[in-house]
């Protein structure tokens, strides 16, 4: 039979084991409780992810729509710009061709005028014909109402060619316009039809003619 001392020792042993087991159980349960007592980081992460997903979702739904709207609004202007660019390129090419043709025509005119000038120098003077052409030109200026805007300053005729100059009045500001008008009216004169070839060179102040009865 157990005596009192042995019984007391056994109780102390059992109590010690119980305390030790309780202490280890307490330590083991602390991380779980700590995790359960601090829910905020986990919840905040979930909320942040939800917000990110909502932003991403919004971007996905808004940006493509904006892009489509911009593309649809810009498309008509892009087509117009392309059309205008093509038209401009075409007009530029046409202008270059006209400029080249004009340069060639000017060179041909210079060569033609030079040939007439050389023939004029080589021919003998015809005083009677000079008088007739001068009279016809003077009457033409009067009847065509051009005597106040242009004056005959020199005239000389040879056997088949005549050379004369007209000077604009100082108060006349029409420039080349008046010379075009003069040329148009001269072409309608019966006596002018005797000339088969004509060459003229003009500035705003003066126009020079060389005309020939032979081609």
UniProtKB/TrEMBL annotation:
Keywords: Coiled coil. Residues 81-108 form a coiled coil. It comes from the Bacteria. This is Orphan protein. It comes from Pseudoalteromonas nigrifaciens.
């Amino acid at each position: 039979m157990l005596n009192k001392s042995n019984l007391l020792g056994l109780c102390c042993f059992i109590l010690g084991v119980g305390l030790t087991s309780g202490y280890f159980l307490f330590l083991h349960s602390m991380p779980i409780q700590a995790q359960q007592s601090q829910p905020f980081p986990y919840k905040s992460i979930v909320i942040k992810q939800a917000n990110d997903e909502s932003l991403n979702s919004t971007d996905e739904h808004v940006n493509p729509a904006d892009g489509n709207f911009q593309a649809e609004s810009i498309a008509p202007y892009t087509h117009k710009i392309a059309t205008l660019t093509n038209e401009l390129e075409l007009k530029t090419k046409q202008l270059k061709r006209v400029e080249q043709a004009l340069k060639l025509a000017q060179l041909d005119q210079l060569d033609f005028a030079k040939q007439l000038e050389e023939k004029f120098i080589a021919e003998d003077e015809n005083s009677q014909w000079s008088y007739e052409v001068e009279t016809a030109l003077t009457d033409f200026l009067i009847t065509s109402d051009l005597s106040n805007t242009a004056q005959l300053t020199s005239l000389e005729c040879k056997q088949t060619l005549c050379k004369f100059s007209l000077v604009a009045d100082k108060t006349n500001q029409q420039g080349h316009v008046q010379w075009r008008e003069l040329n148009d009216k001269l072409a309608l004169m019966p006596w002018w039809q005797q000339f088969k070839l004509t060459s003229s060179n003009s500035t705003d102040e003066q126009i020079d003619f060389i005309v020939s009865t032979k081609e």
